[in-house]
Write a structure and sequence with these properties.
Mean pLDDT is 85; it is low at 74-83, 85-100 and 102-121. Helix 1 runs parallel beside helix 5, helix 4 crosses helix 7 (244-253) and helix 11 packs across helix 12 (430-449). This protein starts with a strand and ends with a strand. The chain is an alpha/beta fold and 456 residues long. The chain is 31% helix and 30% strand. A hairpin with a 2-residue loop joins strand 10 (208-211) and strand 11. Strands 8-1-14-13 form a 4-stranded mixed β-sheet. A 4-stranded mixed β-sheet has the order 5-4-10-11, with no helix packed on it. The chain has a 4-stranded antiparallel β-sheet with strand order 16-17-15-18. The protein has helices spanning 16-26, 30-37, 126-134, 140-161, 172-192, 221-226, 244-253, 292-295, 318-327, 358-368, 416-426, 430-449; strands at residues 3-9, 46-55, 58-67, 82-84, 97-98, 123-125, 169-171, 196-199, 202-203, 208-211, 214-217, 232-233, 263-272, 282-290, 299-310, 332-339, 345-353, 375-383, 386-393, 396-404, 410-414, 453-454. It folds into 3 domains: 3-66 and 122-290, no CATH class; 299-383, Transcriptional regulatory protein pf0864 domain like (Alpha-Beta Plaits); 386-450, Roll (Ubiquitin-like (UB roll)), CATH 3.10.20.
């Protein structure tokens, strides 16, 4: 079955406003965003606008959020050292200050390449922001996404500062920026009705950034925390290219950090940054389908194949290991006898798992075996369309697995455990009873579909 996939191509990094610009460029109506954002209690505190532009010949959309005194002011851009204030806001593609959440007083510089200046005022804690979002009565999916993004953002800041979620707070004006970015991104993702989000390697940039801790190398501490275990690239330019807000959107939204397989692109959007780089400073997003092109008439699933060749473990230990792997979420576990170098007999352990169970499966594998390394390969699994039905036979009801071949014929098999139990209860030989049950199943399916192919 085809899935609708949104792919983030972060070759020039990602920020909150570039995400909004890219998704509006992709086709999310700006009027829809403005209407939904108007439900926020802080609607009077910001202006959101969109404009067409280009970066090195690539046309796209730039999103602008203005807050406080900068509302209605002409855009202004700061140049020089990248700065981070105390709540993270964007632009990674401007010289700017992220206004990081924080849990202690400090002094800081603001050099926003975002189109606003910030006055210092009260602070909002995470719980207050969550209540503000909940009170807006946004579409349920968008509200859930917004909460998830803000939470991973706050968790990263709490980890960096060595504090707890309830002590992480946002400067009030700066929080408006992030609330707009995050809620708008959540609204866009929900509007698109996507089945999953994927992302390639994330470019982080290079150089130094000024934050509340002083000068720090790119990526900023919160960005680094958010992108743990995510494939990243560095140094395309000597400037920060991925902000905490952009990283949080990815962290909370992306299912798989890898390009889609069998991906048929339908629409492409470009979100423009402000800085000028030797390459187009844009975030590219692509919306399309994945599954049908590769699968044809078959059902299609993606999985990871985790394998290891083991020659120094007792054979009896593979049983408990398999049990532990299944308990960790593995779809299948199987063993293959192999011969390794120097003629040593060994066993190849193969585990089929989903991406979301990957960490648990690896932990179980390393804890329960003698291996010191594994190979991981993304695989496509193609299957005949199938279902399990319970059919009546002269000996009782029997579950039957039924698959449909590409030419329309059926292939089926009665469940072994059910047939075995009926044979035992009747005191009849298993093969004799199975033949009678299969005859009844074949007759029933013939009446329904004009013929079938059983598994003997």
């Amino acid at each position: 079955m085809a899935e609708t996939v949104l792919y983030f191509d972060c070759f020039s990094g990602i920020s909150g406003d570039m995400t909004i610009g890219a998704l509006v460029d992709l086709g999310v109506p700006a009027a829809f965003l403005l209407e939904e954002l108007g439900k926020l209690p802080l609607r009077s505190e910001f202006d959101l606008s969109f404009e067409r532009g280009e970066k090195r010949g690539i046309a796209g959309t730039r999103a602008r959020v203005r807050t406080g005194a900068s509302r209605g002011a002409a855009p202004h851009h700061h140049h020089g050292q990248d700065h981070h204030g105390h709540h993270h806001h964007d632009h990674a593609h401007d010289d700017h200050g992220h206004h990081h959440p924080h849990s202690h007083p400090h002094t800081h510089d603001h050099a926003h390449a975002r189109d606003h200046d910030h006055a210092h005022g009260p602070h909002r804690h995470l719980a207050e922001i969550e209540a503000l979002i909940a009170g807006a009565r946004l579409p349920a999916g968008a509200e859930a996404r917004a909460h998830a993004i803000f939470r991973v953002l706050a968790e990263a800041e709490a980890k960096v500062h060595g504090t707890t979620l309830d002590k992480v707070h946002f400067h009030e004006v700066g929080a408006v920026d992030s609330i707009v970015d995050i809620v708008a991104a959540a609204l866009c993702l929900d509007f698109l009705g996507i089945d999953r989000v994927q992302c390639g390697p994330v470019e982080l940039g290079g150089g130094m950034v000024r934050c509340e801790h002083g000068l720090m190398p790119v990526p900023a501490p919160a960005t680094a925390e958010l992108l743990r275990d995510v494939p990243c690239t560095y140094g395309r330019v000597a400037s920060e290219t991925t902000t905490p807000t952009g990283a949080a959107i990815l962290k909370a939204s992306v299912t798989t950090f890898a390009p889609p397989r069998g991906f048929a692109v339908r629409r492409i959007g470009y979100g423009l940054g402000t800085k000028d780089f030797p390459h187009p400073n844009v975030l590219r997003v692509m919306l399309g389908t994945a599954g049908d092109a590769a699968a044809g008439p078959y059902e299609h699933e993606r999985a990871l194949l985790v394998e290891s060749n083991i020659d120094d473990m007792s054979p009896e230990a593979f049983g408990p290991l398999s049990d532990a792997l299944f308990a960790a979420g593995a779809r299948d576990v199987f063993l293959t006898p192999i011969t390794m170098k120097k003629g040593r007999p060994a066993t190849k352990l193969s585990v089929l798992t989903d991406e979301d169970a990957r960490a648990r499966v690896l932990a179980a594998l390393f804890a329960g075996s003698s291996t010191i390394g594994v190979r991981i390969t993304p695989v496509d699994k193609l299957m005949l369309p199938r279902e399990i039905r319970t059919l009546a036979t002269r000996h009782g009801a029997v579950p039957v697995k039924i698959a449909r071949l590409p030419d329309g014929r059926l292939r089926w098999k009665a469940e072994h455990d059910a047939v075995s139990a009926l044979a035992l209860g009747a005191g009849r030989p298993y093969f004799q009873l199975r033949a009678e049950i299969e005859a009844d199943i074949a007759a029933a399916l013939d009446r329904e579909a004009g013929g079938g192919e059983g598994n003997g």
